[in-house]
Structures are given as structure tokens and as C-alpha cells.
């Protein structure tokens, strides 16, 4: 680029300045039609108003995911509950009195009664003698003036023990033990009770407590002992031993004379075995104590004392 | 931006980014007259001029997202109009001239002034401004375009060169020839 041509151009522009100014001023009125102006400006507005705005989540969209999650949880819970209830119902239907009748009858009424009491013992969170004791224990407690309502019912008849089962765990569980182990005899034993209960039951009670007395409500056995027949006697013996130990521990709180008086009462009330065992425990604790003359309970031999209460030594 | 007045580029960016229709209206107001006259003088037909004018602005609106501040807005706008002018002239079969004709002698008969713009009609008008306008319109297309871009668009030589796709010297030469012709026309007018 040279300066000379630019200078020539500038000179030409200067020479035509007036003519160009006239042209510009005169042609200033040459403008596009107003309609054209309006059309173009309207198009410019339409273009920006039609521009897709960034997607904003509306109220519904914002809650879409949480609502879906909540719906899934509710549905899953409902279906699970339905399945559980259906399963329980089917189990009830599967267990019929006929199947119960097939079980061998091997145990006596006393065993039934004691077995019926056992589940209650297991179901209670804190064992109380009034509700957990076996018939023998209840009788023994009766002898020392500590009778419980359950014991009173037990006195009336063997089967009256069943109502003493704790309502917390449901009668079905206790009766399940009966039905599972005892067979027709136990079923027969429990039928009147079952009928009596069923009469007072509402539909909802039937659902929550689906067991007719002799029919097991759930496959959960009342105790392992209820399933394994031969070990029942051992467990009963262990319970007796436990109760005796409890009695002895209670007796220890009093003096020797009071303990001897308690033993005497047991003897006189007919609890000969308990009195003997209590006396043996007494002699372990008070080895040189002379029994008062005329004490009804025969003094056990020293070997018997050692065998009966080795732990007290 | 000068003295608080937004530049053309700032207005265009506001329209592009924020959808500010007011910014576009301001831009339109600034350039509607010059661009319309450019189209009118290039086509010498009001109907076609309006068509080109509208197409140029619509192209600007629709292609706003592609706008980049690489040159003055005015250059961008007149570039669109220039392209549309060539399209229309080609469509009408009137482009027998080369827009980069240096001498301006290869003007086809079809680009001669319309019947109503013949010298005898121009004399009948007896209005000097129309004589000037006619003188411009009689310029060869390339020279006329360079002249109009300089006068109406107020573009620099560099911008005219860029817009028309020629070198700066070529653009300057076209503008110089246009001014010489215009001067001669006006000198002849003073003679009577």
C-alpha cells in the first residue's frame, strides 16, 4: 500500500463530498416500508420467544423419583405381608386333626399337663413360679401357702392347666406342643378346651391365633423336648432340681429352727420327698445340728446327703 | 461501547445470548436505512430490494447463534446482504457482469438503467438529487457496490475488501473509479 493512491482517493472523496452529502440527505427518506419493519421486528421477537428454555423441573417432576421410590417400598411391604399371611394360612390348612391323630399316644395325662405348662415357662421373659412351675412344683408351692391361680386351676383337673398358658405367646404354641407329641389322647384331652376357645373367638382372633387347640399354629415346636420325646423326663427332673434349689435358697434366708419348721410342715402336708431333700440340704449346711426330738422327717444317711446336694458343699 | 451507547456488537450479543428483542430493535433502527438503500441501489427495483433486505435480516435472526465478534457487526450484516444480492441477480439472469470487473466496462445491457431511468426521463425529472442517484446507479456493479458500501455502510477499504472477497487495492480501485465517474457526471450537470 502506497501513500500516493490513498491521497488520490482522499482527494476524490473531498471533490465529491458535496454531491455525496446531497445524495445522502436526499435519500435519507428512502426507507423500508413500515410493514416490512414490523414483520422483521416481529420475527426477531418470535425467534427468541420460541427458543427452547432450559428444562426446569416442575413440581411433579421434582417429586417423581421420591414418589416412585415410596410407591415401590409400600408395594414391596404389602406383598411381603400378604405372602407371610398366606404362608401362615396354608400351614394351618395343612395341619388337620387327622394328621394329629396319627401321632402315637405314649404319654400320660400328667405328662400332657406338664408339657402344656412348659411352653409357658419358656415364653415368659422372667420366670415366675406361679406361671412356670410344673404340676409337681405347683403342688409343692401349694403346700407352703404360695398357691397361684394357675395352681388352683391345676387342682381342678389335668386339662385345666391349658388356660393358664400365657396369652402373650398364644395358646396355639402351648397346644402345639401337646398336639405334636401326644397324639390322639392329647388331642382328645385338648378338644373341649379348643371348642370353648373357638366359640369365643372372632374372625380376627382366628387369623392371629389360627390354632384350634390341638392343632399346631406354627411349625415352631414349643421346646426341643417336645419334639424329642425321651428327653422330656430329664428336663422335668432338671426343673425339679432347680425348684428345689430355689426353695432351699429361700429357706436359707431364715434361721435353722425356722427351716426345720418349714421341713416339718412339708412332711406333714405330704411332701415327703421334698421334706427329705430339704432336710438333707439343711444337714449339709448345718452338719452338726441336732434335730429336735420327735422331728418327723427321718434323718438321711451321710451318703445320701452327699449325693443329693453335692453343689451345696 | 462509547458514551454509554452500546456498540452494534454488544447489542447483537445481547440479542443472541439473552434473547433481548429490544437490542435487536435498536440494531435494526441503526441500520435499516443504509442497508435498504444499499439493496435498492444494487437491484434498482424496490420489490427485489425489499426481498433482499428482509432476507438479510431474517438470515441474521435465524443464524444469530453463529454470530461471532470477529469483525464489525456492520460488515457481517452487509456481507449477508451482498450474498443475497448476488443470489437474486443470478436468479433473475441479470448477472452477466462480473462484480469484480475492474474497468467497469463489461456491463451487460440488462444492467443498463431501466426504461424509466433512461437519460431522457432523468432530464424530465429535473431534480439534481435524482441525477446523482442515477449516476450512482449507472456505475458498474462492482464499483457501485464499493461506493454504496462506503457511503451507506460506512465501511473501510479493508472491510469492503473482506466483504467482497477482493484485496484492499482492488476495493480501493473500485471505489476510486466510482468516485471519478460520479464527479464526471456531476461536472457535466453543471455545464448547462
Short descriptors:
heterodimer, A: 313 residues, mainly alpha, rod-shaped, B: 192 residues
Outline the fold blueprint:
The complex is a heterodimer of chains A (313) and B (192).
Chain A: H1 3-15, H2 17-27, H3 34-49, H4 59-62, H5 64-94, H6 97-101, H7 109-123, H8 129-132, H9 135-143, H10 149-156, H11 171-182, H12 184-199, H13 203-208, H14 224-227, H15 232-252, H16 256-268, H17 272-285, H18 302-308
Helix pairs in contact in A: 7-11, 9-10, 11-12, 16-17, 17-18
Chain B: H1 8-18, H2 21-43, H3 46-62, H4 73-91, H5 119-125, H6 128-137, H7 141-151, H8 157-164, H9 168-190
Helix pairs in contact in B: 1-2, 2-3, 2-4, 2-7, 3-4, 4-8, 6-9, 7-9, 8-9
How would you portray this structure in words?
Chain A is built from 18 helices and no strands. Chain A has helices at 3-15, 17-27, 34-49, 59-62, 64-94, 97-101, 109-123, 129-132, 135-143, 149-156, 171-182, 184-199, 203-208, 224-227, 232-252, 256-268, 272-285, 302-308. Mean pLDDT of chain A is 64; it is low at 103-107 and 119-228. By secondary structure, chain B is mostly helical. Helix content of chain B is 67%, strand content 0%. Chain B has 9 helices and no strands. Mean pLDDT of chain B is 78; it is low at 96-113 and 121-126. Chain A binds chain B through residues 1, 5-6, 8-9, 12-13, 15-16, 19-20, 22-24, 26-28, 30-33, 36-37, 39-41, 43-45, 47-49, 51, and chain B through 15, 19-21, 24-25, 28, 32-33, 36-37, 40, 50, 53-54, 57-58, 61-62, 64, 128-129, 132-133, 136, 151, 168-169, 172, 175-176, 179-180, 182-183, 186.
Amino acid at each position: 500500500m502506497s501513500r500516493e493512491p490513498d491521497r488520490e482517493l482522499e482527494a476524490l472523496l473531498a471533490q465529491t463530498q458535496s454531491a455525496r452529502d446531497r445524495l445522502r440527505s436526499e435519500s435519507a427518506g428512502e426507507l423500508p416500508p413500515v410493514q416490512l419493519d414490523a414483520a422483521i421486528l416481529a420475527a426477531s421477537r418470535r425467534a427468541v420467544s420460541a427458543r427452547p428454555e432450559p428444562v426446569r423441573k416442575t413440581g411433579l417432576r421434582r417429586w417423581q423419583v421420591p414418589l416412585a421410590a415410596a410407591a415401590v417400598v409400600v408395594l414391596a411391604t404389602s406383598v411381603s405381608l400378604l405372602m407371610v399371611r398366606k404362608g401362615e394360612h396354608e400351614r394351618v390348612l395343612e395341619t388337620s386333626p387327622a394328621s394329629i391323630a396319627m401321632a402315637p399316644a405314649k404319654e400320660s395325662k400328667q405328662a400332657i399337663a406338664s408339657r402344656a405348662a412348659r411352653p409357658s415357662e419358656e415364653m415368659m421373659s422372667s420366670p415366675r413360679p406361679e406361671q412356670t412351675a410344673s404340676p409337681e412344683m405347683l403342688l409343692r408351692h401349694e403346700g407352703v401357702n404360695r398357691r397361684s391361680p394357675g395352681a388352683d386351676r391345676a387342682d381342678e383337673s389335668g386339662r385345666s392347666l391349658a388356660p393358664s398358658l400365657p396369652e402373650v405367646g398364644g395358646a396355639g404354641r402351648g397346644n402345639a406342643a401337646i398336639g405334636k407329641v401326644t397324639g390322639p389322647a392329647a388331642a382328645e384331652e385338648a378338644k373341649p378346651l379348643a371348642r370353648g376357645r373357638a366359640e369365643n373367638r372372632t374372625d380376627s382372633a382366628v387369623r392371629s391365633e389360627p390354632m384350634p387347640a390341638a392343632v399346631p399354629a406354627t411349625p415352631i415346636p414349643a421346646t426341643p423336648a417336645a419334639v424329642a420325646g425321651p428327653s422330656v423326663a430329664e428336663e422335668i427332673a432338671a426343673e425339679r432340681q432347680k425348684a428345689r434349689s430355689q426353695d432351699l435358697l429361700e429357706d436359707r434366708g431364715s434361721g435353722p429352727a425356722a427351716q426345720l419348721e418349714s421341713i416339718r410342715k412339708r412332711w406333714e402336708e405330704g411332701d415327703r420327698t421334698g421334706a427329705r431333700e430339704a432336710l438333707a440340704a439343711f444337714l449339709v449346711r448345718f452338719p452338726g445340728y441336732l434335730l429336735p426330738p420327735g422331728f418327723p422327717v427321718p434323718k438321711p444317711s451321710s451318703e445320701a446327703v452327699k449325693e443329693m446336694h453335692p453343689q451345696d458343699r | 461501547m462509547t458514551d454509554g451507547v452500546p456498540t452494534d456488537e454488544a447489542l447483537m450479543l445481547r440479542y443472541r445470548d439473552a434473547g433481548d428483542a429490544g437490542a435487536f430493535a435498536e440494531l435494526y433502527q441503526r441500520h435499516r436505512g443504509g442497508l435498504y438503500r444499499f439493496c435498492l441501489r444494487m437491484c434498482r427495483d424496490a420489490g427485489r430490494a425489499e426481498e433482499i433486505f428482509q432476507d438479510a435480516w431474517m438470515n441474521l435472526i435465524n443464524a444469530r447463534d453463529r454470530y461471532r465478534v470477529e469483525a464489525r457487526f456492520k460488515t457481517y450484516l452487509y456481507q449477508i446482504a451482498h450474498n443475497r444480492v448476488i443470489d437474486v441477480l443470478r436468479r433473475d439472469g441479470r448477472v452477466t457482469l462480473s462484480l469484480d470487473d475492474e474497468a467497469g466496462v463489461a456491463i451487460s445491457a440488462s444492467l443498463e438503467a431501466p426504461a424509466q431511468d433512461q437519460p431522457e426521463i432523468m432530464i424530465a425529472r429535473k431534480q439534481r438529487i435524482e441525477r446523482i442517484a442515477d449516476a450512482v446507479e449507472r456505475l458498474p456493479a462492482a464499483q457501485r457496490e464499493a461506493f454504496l458500501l462506503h457511503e451507506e455502510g460506512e465501511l473501510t477499504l479493508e472491510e469492503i475488501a473482506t466483504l467482497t472477497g477482493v484485496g484492499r487495492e482492488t476495493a480501493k480501485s473500485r471505489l476510486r473509479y466510482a468516485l471519478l465517474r460520479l464527479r464526471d457526471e456531476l461536472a457535466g450537470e453543471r455545464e448547462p
